[in-house]
Design goal:
Arc Repressor Mutant, subunit A, 3 helices
Length: about 70
């Protein structure tokens, strides 16, 4: 699976961000939680694509942080 969430100390102080952008994953989640649709977010933030947003969401959904403990 291609990684959409990246983090490095040179961008956003190391906060997780969408690969190829300076848009934090936290901001993306806040926009979605506020009710914005993916097409609305892409219009507002042209450096994002629908593919990138869906990729971030898929990566988050499969992250270990959300895994059910056994």
């Amino acid at each position: 699976m291609e990684r959409w969430i990246v983090s490095d100390p040179d961008h956003l102080g190391g906060a997780p961000r969408v690969r190829g952008t300076r848009i934090s994953v936290a901001l993306l989640l806040e926009l979605l939680a506020s009710g914005m649709t993916i097409p609305e977010i892409v219009r507002e933030y042209p450096s994002l694509s629908e593919e990138a947003i869906r990729g971030v969401l898929e990566e988050l959904a499969h992250s270990e942080a959300l895994a059910v403990p056994s």
